[in-house]
Amino acid sequence: MTERLFEGADWDFHTLQRITDACEEVALKDLGLDVYPNQIEVITAEQMLDAYSSVGMPLFYKHWSFGKHFAYHEASYRKGLMGLAYEIVINSSPCISYLMEENTATMQTLVIAHAAFGHNHFFKNNYLFKQWTDAEGILDYLDFAKNYVMQCEERYGRIEVERTLDAAHALMSHGIDRYPGKKQLDLREEEKRAGRRRQHEEEVFNDLWRTVPKGASKARSAISLERRRKLLGLPQENLLYFLEKSAPRLAPWQRELLRIVRHIAQYFYPQSQTKVMNEGTATYVHYRIMTKLHQQGRITDGNFLEFLGSHTNVVFQPEFDDPRYSGFNPYALGFAVMQDIERIVTSPSDEDREWFPDIAGKNDVMGVLRDVWANYRDESFIAQFLSPKLMRHFRMFHLHDDPEERAGIRVDAIHDERGFRRVRRELARQHDVGYIDANIEVVDVDLSGDRRLILHHRVIKGSQLNETDAKRVLQHLADLWTYDVALIEVDANDKVLREYVVSPRPIPAAVA
Amino acid sequence: MAIHIIDRRLNPGGKSLENRQRFLRRAKSLVQGAVKKTSQERDIKDVLEGGEVTIPLDGMHEPRFRREGGTRDMVLPGNKKFIEGDYLQRSGQGSAKDSGPGEGDSEDAFRFVLSRDEFVDLFLDDLELPDLAKRKIAQTESEGIQRAGYTTSGSPANISVSRTVKLALARRIALKRPSKDEIDELEAEIEACTDEDERAGLIARLDKLKAKTKRIPFIDPLDIRYRRYEKVPRPVAQAVMFCLMDVSGSMSEHMKDLAKRFYMLLYVFLKRRYKHVEIVFIRHTDRAEEVDEQTFFYGPASGGTLVSSALQAMHEIVRERFNPSDWNIYAAQASDGDNSYSDGELTGMLLTEKILPVCQFFAYLEVGESGGSAFDLSDSSLWTLYERLRNSGAPLSMRKVSERSEIFPVFHDLFQRRDTAQEKAAP
Predict the structure, then answer these.
(1) Alpha carbon of A13: minimum distance to chain B alpha carbons (Å)
(2) Could A464 and B88 be called an inter-chain contact, meaning their C-beta atoms sit closer than 8 Å?
(3) Residue in A24, A44, A67 closest to B22 by CB
C-alpha cells in the first residue's frame, strides 16, 4: 500500500512537492510525456486578477486597457458573477503554473496534473507552438518590452506612446504571420537587436548631415505596378508588419512598439488555434493522472469523488436550447475526442475501422495521442478525429442561416449517415482561425500620387465588417500611415460591396 | 527534475494599480460624471464610501475588425427532433437586433468598483479653494527650516562629523601623510636592525616621516564642514472649521439635516487640503455656546435669535485658541434667516471687523423647508443684511438651499474651480 499524498483538504508546500513528484512519475512513466521544467507558484485571488488583466502574463508593459480589464474583472468577481480560474499556465521554459491559494489539496493535484503536465507537454510538443513561439525567450522579451515602453514614455511622452499602442492594439488581430516561411522567432535575439540598433544610431549620429542640402529626389515614377508591389512585399496580410516596415513617417521607436505588439500577437496565435486541443490534452492528462493516483491508493476515495465533481463540471456541455449554452465547451469537446481516440485505438467498432483505418485497433494509446498532440491544430484535429459516435453522442446538427431565405433557418445536416461528414467539416471550419478572422490585406500603395494605402477585405458568405468598429480601426491605421487609407470590401467575384476612406487625424501640438 | 515551488502570495500587491490609474485618467470625465450621479443618490454618511460606478463603454471602446451579418453556419449540440431539410422559424426579436449595426455598442455600460480614495479624489477634483482663500494662504505661510547641503562656516553644534572626516581623509591621502602603521613598522625595523649605518639611515627616515606627520595635521580647519540650514516658507497645514448654527425653535429637523450635510462636505473637502482639521461647533439661540457634535445637531434648545452672539463666541474662541497666523480658519453658518432686527447692526459690525479679516472663507447657508416656495418670495432679514455687506465688498459666500439634492450642486458651485482668465479678471 502506497502512502497517501495528503489527507483532507489542507496542504502545505511539502504536500505540493509530493503531489508534483507523484504526478510527474505518472506523467513521465505511464504517459510518456515530454515537458519543460516546471515552476509552480502559489498566488492569491488578487494576484490572479492581476494576471487576468495582463493576458495571464506575469509581466507586461503598462497600458490603460489592462487597467480597464482589471476593473471589469474585479467588479464582476466582487459581485460573485465570476469565479476565478483555478490556475493559469504560461508557455515558457521553465513552464510557470500559477495555483490559487484557496484550492483544496485535491484541486491542487488536479491543477498540477492539468497545467504543469498536460498543458506543459502540449506547449513543448505541438508543431504550432514550436514554430511560432519561443518559450525560452518570452519572459525576457516581455521584460524588454516593458522597459522599452517605459523608456519611450520617458523620452517621448506618455500620450504619444499611448496613441501608438492604442493603434497597434486595434490592429493586433491583423499583426500575425499566418504562414511559416520567415525564419523562426528568437526573442532573445530581438531584444539584443533593438539595443544594438539604438547604439548604432547613437554612434553614427552626426548633426552635420542635417545641414547638407538634399538633391532633387530621383524620379521613379515609372515603376510598374508589379514591381512596386514586389518592392513593398504586397499583398501583405500582416498589417502591423507592413506598417513597421513601410509606413513613411513613423519614428524608429514607434516601429519598435509595433514590432513588440506584433511579436506578442504572434506568441498568442497558436493558443487561439488550439483551444480545443490544448484543453482537451490537459483534461485528458489530468484525468489519467488522477485515476492512476487513485488506483495506487495515493488519494482517498473521498478526494477522488471531489475530483470527479470538479472534473464533470469542467467537461459539462449544455445543449443548444439550454440557457447556459454559449457555444461548444473546448474542455468537453477536446476531452471527449481524446477519450474517443483511446476507445478507437483499443476497442474499435466496425464503424471506427471504416472511418479511422490508421489508428483503429493499434493498441498504443499514448503513441497515437502524442502524435495527435504534436501534429494537429483544432481545425485539422476535428476534421480528422471527430467520430460518428461522438457526433451522435453530442447530437450535433448543422444550421444554415441565410438572411435571404424567407422560410427560416435551414437544418443542413444532422448526426446521420448522410450528415456526418458535413457536420464534421462545418465544425472544423468553425475552429479555423484563418476562416473566422476577416481576411484583410494591403494590396497597393499609390506611391507616385497621394500615397493612399489600399486594403481589400475579401468578404466570405456576405459577412461584412462592423461599420463603427471598422471606421475606428481604420482611423488608427491612417494615423500610423499618416496618409489616407482606403478599405474596399470585395466579394468572391471582385465586386465592390463597400468602400471606406479615412484620413489621418492631425497630430495635436505637443501638450505642455 | 528539480521542481520549483514558489510562494508568491507575499509579493507586494497592487501590480495592476498603475494600469488602473491610467484607465481612470483616461476615463476621467466619464467617471467623474458617474461619481457625481452616484453620490446624489446616496446618503451623506456613505456618500464618499467609494463603490460601484457605471460609465458608458463608448469612450473606452477598443475597436477591432469584426465581421457580422451574412449567411451563418453553425454546428450545435443537443438535437432532439430536427431532421435534415427542416426549417426553423427565426425569432423576430433576434433578427431585429441584428439589423441595427453598431446600435448596441453605445448602450453597453461598463461597471466597476472605485476605492474610497479614488472616489473622493474624483468627487472633489474640480473643486478649488476660492480665490479669496488662495490669496490668504500665500500670506499665512510660516517659516520652517530645512537642510540644504554643507557650508564652511557655522556654529560648532552643526559640525558634520562624517563629512569632515571624509574630507580630512582625502586630504591626508592626497598629501601622502604617513600612516601610523608605516611609522610603527619602521620603528620595529629600527629595533631589529643591528647594522649601525643602516640603523642611522632608518632613523633619519623615521624622523623625516614624523616631521611630515606633524606638518600635515590629522584634521585641518580646512576640512571642517557644517550642516547648512535654510529657511523656507511653509504653508500652514492645519485648519479649523467653525460650524455656526441657529438652533432656535424655527429651525426644523429638515433644516438641520441640510446644514449637517453641508458641514460634512466642507469637512471632507478641508480634510483633503490640510493635514489637520479641527471642528468647532457653536450653536446659538439668543445666546451662543460651544457644544459637541451630538448636542449641536440633536440637543434641544429654545429661545430667541441673536446671530451676533454666535459671531461673538467665535471671535473669542479664535482669540483664545486659534491664532490666525497658525491656523486657516473656515466658517460656515447655517440659519433659517431669522434674526431680531435690533441685532442687525451688531452682527454686521462683528462680521466685517472681527470675523471676516481672520477667515479664509465664510459661507452662509440659508436653509428652508423642503419644497419651500414661500421661501423664495421675500429675503429673510439675515439674507438682506449679508447681501448688503457683500455688495459693499465683504468676502462672503451665500446660498439658499431647501432640498437635499441641492446640497451637492451648491457646494460644487461655491468651490468651483474658476478659469484662470476669470481669476485674473476678478481682482
Answers:
(1) 7
(2) no
(3) A67
A397 touches chain B (CB under 8 A): yes
Query: Is the CB of residue A434 less than 8 Å away from at least one CB of chain B?
Result: no
Residues of chain A found within 8 Å of residue B87, distances taken between Cβ atoms: 407-411
Greatest Cα-to-Cα distance within chain A, rounded to the nearest angstrom: 89
Alpha-carbon distance values, A340 to A14, A312, A319, A420, B398 (Å):
37, 17, 20, 16, 80
> How, if at all, do strands A496-502 and A485-490 pair?
antiparallel
- A157 CB contacts (<8 Å, ≥6 apart)? A510, A511
Q: Which amino acid is at A393?
A: H
DSSP for residue A359: T
Of B11, B18, B65, the CB nearest to A173: B65
Q: Which residue of A has its CA nearest to B68?
A: A463
In this complex, which of A17, A318, A319 lies closest to B5 when CB atoms are compared? A17
Omega before B357 within 30 of 0, i.e. cis: no
Average pLDDT over residues A147-169: 90
SS3 content of chain A, % helix, strand, coil (to 5): 55, 10, 35
Kindly write down the DSSP assignment for every residue of B167-184, as one continuous string.
HHHHHHHHTTPPPHHHHH
pTM: 0.70
Cα–Cα distance, B380 to B369 (Å, whole number): 14
- Give the nearest partner residue to B69 out of A410, A462, A468, using CB atoms: A462
Chain centroid offset of residue B210 CA: 65
- Of the candidates A49, A65, A470, the beta carbon closest to that of B65 is on A470
C-alpha dist (Å) from residue A23 to A17, A111, A285: 10, 10, 10
* ipTM entry: 0.77
Q: Is the pLDDT of residue A214 over 80?
A: no
Q: How many CB atoms lie within 10 A of CB A192?
A: 12
Question: How confident is the prediction for chain B on average, in pLDDT?
Answer: 76
Whether the per-residue pLDDT at B106 is higher than 50: the answer is no
Full 3-state SS string of A17-48: HHHHHHHHHHHHHHCCCCCCCEEEEEECHHHH
Which residues of chain B does A476 touch, with a Cβ-Cβ cutoff of 8 Å? 63
Chain B residues whose CB is inside 8 A of the A47 CB are 8-9, 11, 13, 15
Residue of B nearest to A470 (CA): B65
pLDDT in tens, B48-101: 666 677 776 666 778 888 888 788 888 889 888 888 888 888 765 443 333 333
| B104 shares contact with chain A (CB less than 8 Å) | no
Which residue reads 553614427 in cell numbers? Answer: A204
Backbone angles phi, psi at B159, to 5 degrees: -60, 130
Q: Over the range A472-501, which residues count as b (16 or more CB within 10 Å of their CB) and which as e? A: bbbbbbbbbbbbbbbbbbbeeeeeeeeebe
Whole-angstrom distance, CA of residue B215 vs CA of residue A460: 96
Cβ separation of A469 and B75 shorter than 8 Å? no
* Contact status, residue B313 vs residue B290, Cβ threshold 8 Å: yes
